[in-house]
Structures are given as C-alpha cells and as structure tokens.
Input
Amino acid sequence: MTKLNSKTPDGPIAEKWTNHKNNINVVNPANKRNIDVIVVGSGLAGASAAASLAEMGYNVKNFCFQDSPRRAHSIAAQGGINAAKNYQNDGDSTYRLFYDTVKGGDYRARESNVYRLAEVSANIIDQCVAQGVPFARDYGGLLDNRSFGGVLVSRTFYAKGQTGQQLLLGAYSAMSRQINTGKVKMYNRHEMLDLVLVDGKARGIIARNLITGNIERYGAHAVVLATGGYGNVFFLSTNAMGSNVTAAWRAHRRGAYFANPCYTQIHPTCIPRSGDYQSKLTLMSESLRNDGRIWVPKEKEDAIAIREGRMKPVDLPEEKRDYYLERRYPAFGNLVPRDVASRAAKERCDAGYGVNQTGEAVYLDFTAAILRYGQERANILHIKNPSAAEIKDLGEKVIESKYGNLFQMYEKITDENPYKTPMMIYPAVHYTMGGLWVDYNLMTTIPGCYAAGEANFSDHGANRLGASALMQGLADGYFVLPYTIGDFLADDIRTGPISTDSPEFEATEKEVKERLDSLLNNKGTKSVDFFHKRLGKVMWDKVGMSRNAEGLKEALAEIRQIREEFYKDVFVPGTMHSFNPELEKAGRVADFLELGELFAKDALERPESCGGHFREESQTEEGEALRDDTNFAFVSAWEWTGDPKDSQLHKEELTFNDIELKQRSYK
Amino acid sequence: MMNLTLKIWRQADAKSQGKMETFKVTEISEHMSFLEMLDVLNEQLINEGKDPVAFDHDCREGICGACSLYINGQPHGPDRAITTCQLHMRTFKDGDTIYIEPWRAKAFPVIKDLVVDRTAFDRIMQSGGYVSVNTSGNTIDANAIPIPKEDADNAFDAATCIGCGACVAACKNASAMLFVSAKVSQLALLPQGKVERQDRVLNMVEQMDKEGFGNCTNTGACSIECPKEISLENIARLNREYLMASLTK
Output
C-alpha cells in the first residue's frame, strides 16, 4: 500500500509555514516566463490563483464552463469571510481561529493546513480591501464584523448578504487585469473533460469548447483544479445547476486519490422544497442565525393546526413555542455549528413538529430582534415613549439594512413577507468537505496536479464552519498555491513548452470523444435529468443527513442499478459539434453516478459519527454524534482501480499535537 | 395549475436565421420558477425526441447573472428587481401566451436560441475595471484607511451589478452605460480606486464604444429593469468622471 506523504513541515505549528516557504524550491522571475500553468475553474480559488500566478510571471490559461469567469458559484456565497483580525477586541487570534476550525471540523482535518489557513486569513482582508472590495463598515469608517456558528467571537467580515459576490468580483478584477496584460489567456465556455498525464506528470487537459463542440488539447507544466464541490450528486442542493465533479473525478480516474467523499455539509437554513418540479434549493445565509430564533411548536396539535392552515405562527404564544436549539445548547444557542443545527431540525420534524405541508420545515423568527433593534434605535434617536408600531418600524429598518436582500429573496420565492411572519427553513445539501486528497503543497497524488478551494479535502475536516469556505478558497489561491507550486515547477525550467502532439494527448482525446459519442449514440428513451433525480433521491434518503449500514448497502446496490440503466436507456439529443447543454449534463451525471457509489462506500466504511457524517449506530444517549478516535482518526483516501466498488482505501493518520482531542460540545 | 402558450425564439447558431416557434405547456404550478417551467418544456421536448430550447442559467438564485430572457417585452420579465430565475409563475394566469426572446443587441450576438454572447462585458472589465494591486501579504492593514460609511455603502450598491446585460437589452439604443458606470462608480468612490480613476474611465468607455454598444439618451429604462436596481446616479457620476478625465488627461 502506498504511503500518503502529507509533506507537513517540521517545527512548531506556528513556524511551519514560514519554515516551509524558506526551504522549498523557488523559480526565478525570468524562468517563470517559460512556464505554463493551467487553472481550471474561475471561482474564488481559481480566479485568485490565476491572477496571482500571472502576476508572478507564469503564463496562465484559465478555463470555466460558464459564459464569463465572473459567474462561478462562489458568487452565491452570502454571509461572510472569517479572518483572525481581532478588530472587535474579543480575544480572537490565529490560534483561536485554528482551534475553532479544527474543533468545528470534528477533529478530522490536518492540523498544519488549518493553522496555515488561520495564519494567512488576515492578509486576505487586507488584500481584498486594497482591491476595492466594499465590505460593510461602521459609522467610524472601520470594518464591521458579525458572528457565525460554532465560535464565540465576531470575526466575520461581510458585504450585506453578498459577500461571495464582492470577493469573487475582486478576484475576477485581478484576473481581468492579467488577461489585459496577456499573462492570463481566458477560455470561457470550455469544460475540462480529462487530464493528460505525460511520464506520470499532469501536463495538460482535454476540454470541450461548449459553443462549437470541438474537443481541444491544452498543454502546461502543471494543472490546478479549482473546480468546486460535488453537492449536485444529490440533484437538489444549493449549488448552481452547472456545478459538477467531472474535472475532479476525471483526475481521480487518472490517479488522484479522492479523500473523505462522504463528508457533506447539510446547511440548516435553506428554503424548504415545494414540489417535484424543483430544480434547486436556495440557501438563506447562516448570518440570519445572529438575529433569528429557531423554533417549532411545543405541542403536536399546534404543529398540525399550523400545517393545516388553522393557526398562524404569530398567534402561537411564547410559552407554547419550543426554541429547541436554545433549549439543547444553551452556550451556543442558535449559533451552534451547521451539522448540529441541521440534525436538530431533522429530529424535531421526524418527531412530527414540522410546520409546513410537507412536515419538513421549522421557523426562523426575527420578532425578538426587530423589537431589540427598534428599542436601540429609538434610544439613539432620543424618541421618548415610542409606540410599539414605531419600535417595530425602526427595528425592521435595521433588519433590512443587515439582511435586506435575503428577505427580498425569500419573499420572491415563497410569496411570504418574513418581516411579518417567521421564515420557514429546512436543511439542504450545501458544501462538500471531501475532495481530492492533497499534501501540504496542495498537490494531489498525481505529480503536477494541484487542487484548491472546495475541490480539495484539506481544511474543514468533517464539517465546515460558516464563512470559512471563502477564507479557504482565497487563502489557497492568493497565498498558498502560488508559492508551493514553485517547488514542483523548479524542475521544469528547462523542459520547454509542452507539446500537445504527443501520443498521450492523442490517446486521451480519443477516449473523451468515444465517451461523448457513446452517450450521443445511445438513443435511449429517458432524459438525463430522469436519472439524475433518481440518483439524488437515493443519496438523500440513504446517504443524507443520517446514515446506517443497512441503508448504505441498499444505496450501493441502487446506485449501481441506476448507473446500468443510465447507460442502457439515456437519450441525449443533438450532436457533438454544436452548442448542446444536454450533452454537457449527460457527461456530468455519468460521473456523479460513479462518485455516488464511492460516496456511499466511504460512508459505509466509516462506522463512527463525525461532523456532517452521522451514523445512527454511533451516537450518545442524548443523540449527539459520537466519534471514535481510537479507530478512525484518519483521512480516507480512495484510489481508483477501475470500478467504484473496488476502490482501494489508503489512510492518512491524523495526529493532534496542538489541540487536545475531545468530544465536541456546544452545550 | 396553469396551461400556457409559449412563443419562443429559435435560432440554430449565430449565422442562421431565427424565428418564433409556438409550444404548449400544461399543469404548470404557480410555485414554479420561470426556468423550472422551461425545464418542464425541455423535458417534454426531449421525450418527444426534439431539440430542447437552449437558455443560459446557473445559480438560480439571482446572483450569478447568467439567466437572460426577454419576456413579454421586458428583460427578466414583468416583476421588478429580480432575475428570470427568481420570476415565479404566480405572476402569470392560466391561458396566458408568453413571448420569450434573447437579449437583442449588436454587441450580444446570439449563440443559440435564447443564449447570447456577453463577452463584450468581460472585455470592458479587462480594459480597466480593477485596482492595479498585485497579490501581496503586505498591503496596508485593512483598517488603515477609514472609509466614510456612506461612501462604502454607495460603492457597495454600485458593486452589486451582476453583469447580466438587462440594461443593454432594455435600452432602445442598446447602451452599456449603466453597466460601465456601476464599476466606474464603485472604484471612484473608494480611496483605493481613486488613484487610477482617470485612466480607468477613459479606457472603459473607449472599450465600450469599440464593442458596438449604443449611446445613452437618459431614458432610464436600464435602471428600471435592472435586477439589482443600480441607480441612474451612477451614469451621472460616470459622465462627471469622464468629463474630468478628458479635460485633464
């Protein structure tokens, strides 16, 4: 069995990153001009990496399947970005951010990577402000912060509910500047369909031009995959419709190990589903939990009355409401981590207390916050004896300034006014902590192939804290990868341009063409979505928020069955050499059908509960997740051997020197 | 539940001639989004072995700016301050006929059906829509320069532009002034962007003109139809910035 070498540097944790940068190989500026790097994906990690690498002097080619790099799904992140700035003077520090992230991830992340993430977090904010990112500010002109789940300090920087958009447009602008200088060549509407290895190293990709349909070859000295997560394996998720696993999965099939595929984040505050036609789910930012209180009725009859429309939630008196998060977790209350909040919602709904027609919804109520803020504003404005209506009005204005766009989004979708009646929310698939296994340099098990952002597995363990995805994407792209990639590229200063005429490129291109041709020539009777929806249902029912051995075994068999039927009966209209969105979808779903099986297998072979991975067999008497550090303190890295069922497990043992391993408690 | 008639623009590619085609969809729920209604149509077409209607879409929550339909003569349809993916079928009535067209502008050529090429916007950004700062772990501390809250808020409001192109589609001249002004304003309002404000505005306007967008005649349709309600004040600011830069450069 190959030993996974994380290449974690020696020394005390606070000095590892500095030592590492001092000791790795560096490519001199003149030589960088002779080296090409492909970056796939233009989200926070991809755009920031492409811009930074180009500024350093490398020749970069960036690829995205969207019509513009500005549309990558990072744009939809709402709540904020964490950084250990300690601007609020509440005792924050690099160590505290590191500690919160490792604990929040339920002790399944690599300490050294997480510490580095916390260490560079403050630079990210400086960099973004320098780029003109308009973060929220207070009246003194300084940056404002808010709190997110699972932590006891305010370290989240934000731009209303559009933080991801503002950060992505910052990275996009930095990349646009490099496109203007010619150092980045941009390929919009191009989808990577395979990785090309030459002499065991990643030396290029095969991509399809989504407008002409042509299959094209691109060579480079290294390939960076910043291609996001695979939450769409569930069909319904908060991911964009196009988000997919294909680039990462194709690299996996070429030798990159896939780590912890079963670690999925089910986000607690999403708009509940409304019907079978639904194409995606919409997230309501976790920042809402700063001011919203989550509840269901205490009595089942009240829940039933609400479901049947005989009672309105605003008419249910305080004492008949169960603020179950505040009840179960007094220390963190409504700001427990996402996995804990999601399971608690499911527990209440499964017990019959759900509040919408499907029985799968809980309330998120802003009444108390509106009154609190209203009173505060009345004091500031010296309004004596304000009426209840005045207070409410002032309070609503404060809430609007904080979350206006989220409230508007909610109203547009549900046709209900959340200022007047509590929001209804339910958990939905949101983020995948698993991804391509990478070492400390962010290199996968294929030399020269890197993974950054959500596409890698490294920093969030088994559960990601809110506002940490933006932090990690930008940390990887701005401050980690541009340095660490030099360690590999230093050997390539005399290689010269990578030719795409080699037999390796030819063979890989041929495989891609055959794969697409066979989908087009299948001439079955069912649409791609038909199979995707079936896969999604199995994933949600049996590999979703809580899992057990029996269900997982059934899922394994059912996913195989769906995959077989897909290849027998899928119908893909159109042709290869034209704009053909159905063909794009077909390729992505084919890969999801393989990943889904590995996902279920990984969940089955980890009988402990940890973070977002909840095994019903492993829980405390109070129903909390129960970890097994003696037997499972490792990263599961899977090697492709030709069929997901035969994938081979490699273990990277996790050692904790700077944090004491203990059962997570938010009580 | 609704039954609807759809009149949709079909065009095989940029070179082909396009035309309106008629389709029927039945049992459409009022809770569906407009794009989910088109999903239903496409599923129906695929099951009949026909070519589905191509349209751009991705996040389906109103922020990526990919969706771009001209519905009953309005960009993103009849509702205000939303994108097409946020438009819900409750806005329509049983028996309605709905006309669906692509953005129409010389600078946005049709790729297929309802999909257009908006890379002109990217090229405008590349000409100057940034602050020329390299990635560095040593920029000054983020709080070193206080920014008045009002400036920061105004910059943010301008920065919320999603680059969808509705402003161009709404404009009788197919002008891109609102789009360009949003970026020029954002950066001109912030101290970090002030350093290059003159070159930026000159370069971005020059590129805008090169792309073949029309001129602004202050009708204001762009701002009315903008899903992010980008204000016309930004166009005024763009004009001021441009005039100042032309006089001093």
The longest strand of chain A covers residues 423-432. The two ends of chain A are 42 Å apart (CA to CA).
